[in-house]
Design goal:
disordered C terminus; alpha+beta; eight-stranded antiparallel beta sheet; 25 strands; 4 domains; chaperone; Jelly Rolls; 535 residues; Calnexin lumenal domain, non-globular proline-rich hairpin domain; carbohydrate binding; extended; signal; nine-stranded antiparallel beta sheet; disordered N terminus
Length: 535
Amino acid sequence: MGRFALLLLLAFASFQALCFAADDDTAFYDSFDEPFDGRWIVSDKDDYKGVWKHSKSEGHDDYGLLVSEKARKYAIVNELNEPVSLKDGSTVLQYETRFQNGLECGGAYLKYLRPQEAGWKAKLFDNESPYSIMFGPDKCGATNKVHFILKHKNPKSGEYVEHHLKYPPSVPSDKLTHVYTAILKPDNEVRILIDGEEKKKANFLSADDFEPPLIPAKTIPDPDDKKPEDWDERAKIPDPNAVKPDDWDEDAPMEIEDEEAVKPEGWLDDEPEEIDDPEATKPEDWDDEEDGEWEAPKIDNPKCETAPGCGEWKRPMKMNPAYKGKWSAPLIDNPNYKGIWKPQEIPNPDYFELDKPDFEPIAAVGIEIWTMQDGILFDNILIAKNDKVAESYRETTWKPKFEVEKEKQKAEDESTDSDGLSGVQKKVFDVLYKVADIPFLSEYKLQILDLIEKAEKQPNITIGVIVSILVIILTVLFRLLFGGKKQPKVEKNPEVAETSNNQSTSGEKAEEEEEEEEEEKEGTAAAPRRRRRDT
């Protein structure tokens, strides 16, 4: 009995130690179980008219911070009790967001503010408030990405520069709760997770991972260097000694009549291609004085349907074998060619070396967005110094909600279409979004995302969109294998409707309006009720 009591005591002590460690590693956490008033301060700036609400997540008893109105700017901030250093060990930024009404145009990212200037107040929070990191989903028009932006101070110039993560992951395209995690490691690595799954790994000091790179180039083009006036960049020039041949006829037409052509047997020279409709009758209310002399509408001449043709026969045209077009001298190597001119390189006055990023501490967490969508819910915002703490929150706060929502979505998909077609298309779109994230397709990511969005709005063109994306992939692979220089052309399905595709910028987005699909005109118009003869 004494041994059991001792084991129980040790287990309890271990549990307490784990809890205290978790508390020590949690720098900031807000579950929004209680109303946010007092902790979060809404901006007093005139631009921000959007109303924040403390609201339940649809289908749950769990509360969050809700974007309640469409087409509004929102700004709200929570000042931390103490700034969180990003230089000591690992730092984890994590939060949940749910697009309860979907997301066509809007952002749901967080700004982790650095210490503000003296006199700054939370009610003054706006898009100009300096931040250390901006992180989270953003989607509008051609933009579809999970941002990770680091604002880093150049020690030489003193200027803060935005460094954007290259090839960020795409935003999940559903109405479920998703958890976004950014893990900053002491070895200069940053990992981006969505729902606990790693979507991107990058190095802060790598020029391949951030644009512009944190470490500037050692040299830059000399801004004062000018191209000499006699610098010749033409690799080829017309041969000055070339002479147009005597037999070159520049006036010869491209096409001529085919003299060997013979009129087909049975051609009806005296029959018109169209005749008056014999069944048409003059309307009873037709007024010759007001409407003019009535004429029967025209129809195709039925006699021409079985004949090779009707009306005057003319010889068809054929390519002129003597056609040569405008003569121009052949090109030869330019003896004065000096290559493409570039300014000389000079030492970059803003260059510096760096072993680790000089992170600014996080003094506040803010949400500053312009969205065309309502129903965006933020929840469980966490800053921790241990990724195990973030993992624990994902398992206990996010995963149960997500599983419930996923099962509900599955049931809705099955009820929407008894054949399960809606669910199949959703899986196809999920795969296509993953395809868009493939690094070697990065040059065409926006093009691919645009096609996917068209298919989501018009499911009947899904097959055509898949074909178009395959054309892009195969063309890129061909270029990689054979070194071709042609740009891939997206094969447009004739049923794909044109959509507005304006580029949006972070924090400021215009509503994307979908163009209505044009109705096809009927091939055979009904006989006109009236026809006026020109007099």
